[in-house]
Write a structure and sequence with these properties.
About 65% of the residues lie in helices and about 10% in strands. It has a two-stranded antiparallel ribbon with strand order 1-2. By secondary structure, it is mainly alpha-helical.
Length: about 100
């Protein structure tokens, strides 16, 4: 069942979410670069392999850093608009302070 909630992520949750998104983008870019090199693109296959390996991790770090830098604006925006409206499947987990 699809539900809709207003949410405001804390700093670590936002950084984790953006790092995960960055990793996924890096996988797509790495595969695209590798396929492009195999099909005769202007880069060597060895360079494309290195790019495919490094890209997910570097993009995760970059997106996580953007989360850190953008958190003050995100926090202000969510406070002003009572959070962000998100829709999807949600499962409540007990909070564990780590």
């Amino acid at each position: 069942m699809i539900s809709q909630y207003r949410v405001q992520l804390n700093l670590m949750s936002l950084v984790k979410l953006l790092a995960l998104v960055g990793f996924g983008i890096g996988v797509v870019i790495g595969v695209f670069t590798l396929v492009w090199a195999i099909l005769g693109g202007p880069i060597a296959i060895s360079q494309a392999i290195v790019s495919a390996i490094i890209s997910p991790f570097s993009n995760a770090v970059i997106m996580g850093a953007f989360g850190l830098l953008g958190y003050p604006f995100y926090n202000w925006f969510c406070s002003r608009n009572r959070g962000l409206v998100l829709a999807g499947k949600f499962l409540e987990e007990p909070y564990q302070n780590k």
